[in-house]
Amino acid sequence: MIATAEPKQTRIDDLQKKISATRLSIWLSCRLRFYFKYVAGITKPRTAALYVGHTVHGVLKHWNKLRWRKQTFTTESLKDQFETLWTTDQKKELVRWEADEEPGEKATAWSLLDLYFKDTPIPVNEMPEGVEVTVEADLAKHGLPRLIGILDLVRAGGRITDFKTVGQTPNEEKAAHTNELQLSAYSVLYREATGRKEGGLELHQLVKLKTPKLVITKLEPMTDNQQTRLFKQMESYVEGIGRQDFVPSPGLHCAACSFFNECRRWS
Description:
Layout: H1 8-17, E1 18-20, H2 21-29, H3 31-39, E2 46-47, H4 48-68, H5 75-92, E3 95-96, H6 102-119, E4 130-137, E5 146-155, E6 159-166, H7 172-178, H8 180-194, E7 200-207, E8 213-219, H9 224-242, H10 260-264
Parallel strand pairs: 1-5, 2-3, 6-7
Antiparallel strand pairs: 4-5, 5-6, 7-8
């Protein structure tokens, strides 16, 4: 466990100036978890599930960049990239493996990628609009701080595409609802960067089952109501951080929280 040496008020001031979808999502789910992660700066090893998602995302980023640059690749070269990432990224940060867990998780991660490369709805020759694009939106005119984010993939026609690894087969309506905050944030960022409305939104969800599945959820562009919801959530974030309203939100999600022990000691 490592905590930042940066002054607490400095961290709070910085967090009020810029917001990302990830920070906002954590804030809304549990303000004390947000405090441990972003204000106290406590770092924890990744869980196995998070490392699988991290590596899958890294290989998909590599694949998208190869297509963007019109470079050739094979399944074997993508497998080589997977092997490299799986090993080298563990040298940069710790992973919390249970006994004998890593080989099975590694096999799962590659099986998800292998499925995606075989069943992807994206044509190999489709030229992306952008891959892993870092974007900022100045929302001062709405009385809000800057919104920051990285777009995984923007397909031809401005279709914002986000990749997910999930543990069970997603319901389309629930997937749209639980990912609304992130997709709305990406829509705002895209519109700010291009001056155009996105062509639509897509969730490409790789399901970690004994027999892996790929579930594609296609959604319409962000509505005015969804943008209003996002902006109201951002207002809550700014006001709450200003009050240092870092309180716990006990619930079922606590079972998977890496700050469980710190939370139990909180008073």
